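Notes to self after the call with IL:
- keep both proteins in one doc
- input above output, always
- annotate only the second one for now

Protein 1:
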Amino acid sequence: MHDDQHLLPSETASLPELPNDRAVVLIVDDTPDNLALLSDTLNDAGYAVLVALDGQSALQRLARVTPDVVLLDALMPGMDGFETCKLIKADPRNRHLPVIFMTALTESEHVVHGFRVGGIDYVPKPVKPSEVVARIAAHVQRSRQQRHMDAALEIGMRAALIAAEDGTIRWQSELARERLPRYAAESAPGDGLPELLPELLPELLPELLHQWLMRWVEAGCDLQASFDTVSGRVRQSVRVIGRAEHGDWLIVLEEFDDASQTDSLAGRFSLTSREAEVLLWLSRGKTNRDISDILGMAPRTVNKHLEHVFSKLSVETRSAAAAVAMRCLTQQQK
């Protein structure tokens, strides 16, 4: 085994850096030769591998990282595989974690016992590497799809999607599928963003969203976790909720009708529609560059509108204009 890709039982202080683009398999077996064979086989098949020599070590690893599948020896000294599986499944975080038993006990009662404690499949010993790889591939795919759906449902958002850092969409709700093309359409000709064919949209993030996500990730997730565009009078907001799993991000697409607030500001202070829109975004803490990007106008045009806004509101600073706008909008909501 290669020390930089496997976690040995003595290494309790830290976990290895797991690659974002590979599924993770935790192998639990008390026989080092079996661990070596399975680890090398799975590494060659493109998986990242963690190992444990006993059930207690396996539980310690699962407390710190969630793999895509667990390959579990049924017969081990001390805590056997059946008891280990029961404890794994007692944690709600592992309810959809596939556990595949490896066992020489092929009598029906042992197989049934494995299923009863939460196992999803079994492979007979001595294991055939090609069979193990095939079983793992099938269960990893099903498990990831289930976790994607669960993650979106748990946040209570309908227009949700899960995307990898390369722009691949892992999962998306029907409402997200409906809204995504609008973000591709917002990429104006000549702005350097390549247009995507409509048939690619269900599989890839529009370039506008992908570039923003990559900037956010590359900055260590320290930038704002959302950005806004405006189509007509509808504000389209994109927010990163967090990680769906290792290497994938949970994203929510929201749409808001800001027309009533814009109308309120325009009527109260005798502003044009554009001036009211600029003031609205100013009150939300946006910079001139932000407002320029959101409303699709040149920065100098934003400055010109702000000059008129300051004059009509009888204020001299951005903070004073924002305060006046917020008071107006707060009164509107009462």
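Protein 2 (the one to annotate):
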Amino acid sequence: MDYQYPMDMDWTTEEIVDVIHFFEAVEKAYENKIQKEELMSTYRRFKEIIPGKADEKKYTDEFQESSGYSSYLVMKKAKETESAAWISMK
């Protein structure tokens, strides 16, 4: 990994850790696989920290620009998957 996670210096340490967990979950979906519930849990917490769509887009776009991983596509696939399946972007 040769990139940094986007973050806001106004967030608490706990919030920074939780946002990073969401981006790590997206990485898992691309690099291997992740259980849908684990991904959705990290996303729900991410949305508690970043509730606005514009801010969410800002941070996920920054992440995609630096990593090449699309949070949007991972979440779209997860939302379209009905069962408690694994999510993989491979």
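Annotation: Helices lie at 13-31, 36-49, 53-67, 71-80. The longest helix spans residues 13-31.
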